[in-house]
UniProtKB/TrEMBL annotation:
Annotated gene: MET12
Taxonomic lineage of the native organism: Eukaryota, Fungi, Fungi incertae sedis, Zoopagomycota, Kickxellomycotina
Enzyme Commission numbers on file: 1.5.1.20
Organism encoding this protein: Mycoemilia scoparia
Keyword NADP (UniProt): yes
Protein's UniProt name: Methylenetetrahydrofolate reductase 1
Iron-sulfur listed as a keyword: no
């Protein structure tokens, strides 16, 4: 089998990349070129996000199946369950299987328009755990299933212990690994990680989610939305350079490298890098860490509209 799970058992240092489906055909073509170049850095897998309500369903599937089938790169398809009907979930899972995709990140999802309050489309799917159970029930062990974990707690649940129990519940329901929400405070993440491994009894792989800072405004917006802790020293370093885009990018690379070193030093093998579909920061981070292995050859693929892999 081609599952991420198998590779995770290797205990070698690794990284993975996350992409989102672009809105336009040209954007998709550009992304494919980037993915091809970045695949030569040798990520363990490529994850592709799922737009709220299934808005990106076709493109998410297409990008995953291209990675899997053409680049020979394990792909992880994100799938949300609460803001779309069951027929769409069934169809997404079937298409994934038909395309050879064997890894799903099972998520609840948020309200499509960022509304604070929402009602699930289908009462059968209210939380991510419902999707984990459903996939196991429908497909047995065919899929390797990942779930989201929140080292600093999920924004909607002020009760962190309860939130933690829900993570355990997702693992008990059959999740094979966890990818975490982004964070910038490594000691805080490590404390949570040790809790998972210790009293939490969570023994599946936990992959820390790293989003290198590439732009000051979007960093502030995102940390505000996710309510993740921004260490004072990080803000102090950023403040004097915040209007200098290049300086922010350089700093973002250094900070991500420092975070990942601390994470590796504490015995964790891999990190999941959110690329925002951009190449240079991720590449620089990996080169500085000495993690990209350019000696590994990957098939070079020329894509054109005739390949049937691009949306027409
Ligand atoms: P859940 O695990 O269901 O948790 C949601 C909330 O419900 C939490 O507050 C939790 O404490 C509570 N809860 C959980 N289980 C129960 C239960 N049994 N009973 C009562 N309460 C419960 N969104 C997208 O739209 N597309 C993506 O591609 C995407 N990718 C993501 C990738 C990662 C790594 C992460 C961390 C998030 C991603 N998200 C994505 C965002 C995600 O959809 C939201 O964070 C969403 O609000 C929660 O999803 P979840 O799967 O963690 O939900």
């Amino acid at each position: 089998t081609n599952k991420i799970q198998k590779a995770l058992d290797n205990e070698q240092k690794f990284f993975s990349f996350e992409y989102f489906p672009p809105k336009t055909d040209q954007g998709v073509v550009n992304l494919y070129e980037r993915i091809e170049r970045m695949t030569r850095l040798n990520p363990l897998f490529a994850a592709v996000t799922w737009g709220a309500g299934g808005a990106t369903a076709e493109r998410t599937l297409e990008i995953c199946s291209l990675c899997q089938g053409i680049y020979g790169l394990e792909s992880l398809m994100h799938l949300t369950c609460t803001n779309m009907d069951q027929a769409m979930i069934d169809s997404a899972l079937k298409s994934a299987k038909d395309s050879g995709i064997q890894n799903i990140l099972a998520l609840r999802g948020d309200a499509p328009h960022g509304d604070e309050f929402w009602t699930p489309t289908d009462n059968k799917f209210v939380h991510a755990v419902d999707l984990v159970r459903y996939i196991r029930q429908q497909y047995g062990d065919y899929f390797c299933i990942g779930v989201a974990g929140y080292p600093e707690g999920h924004t909607e649940n002020p009760d962190k212990d309860q939130d933690f129990k829900y993570l355990q519940e997702k693992v008990d329901a059959g999740a094979d690994f966890i990818i975490t929400q982004l964070f910038y405070d490594v000691p805080k993440f490590l404390e949570w990680y040790r809790k998972c491994r210790g009293e939490g009894g969570i023994d599946v792989p936990i992959i820390p989610g790293i989003m290198p800072i590439q732009n000051y405004q979007s960093f502030r917006r995102l940390t505000f939305l996710t309510k993740v802790e921004v260490p004072g020293s990080l803000l102090e370093s950023l403040d004097p350079i915040k209007s200098d885009d290049k300086a922010v990018k350089d700093f973002g690379v250094e900070y991500a490298v420092k975070m990942i070193r601390e994470i590796f030093d504490s015995g964790i093998d891999g990190v999941h890098i959110t690329t925002l579909n951009l190449e240079s920061t991720a590449r620089r981070v990996l080169l500085e860490l000495g993690l990209s292995d350019s000696s590994i050859s990957r098939p070079q693929v020329v894509l054109d509209k005739g390949s049937g892999l691009l949306s027409s």
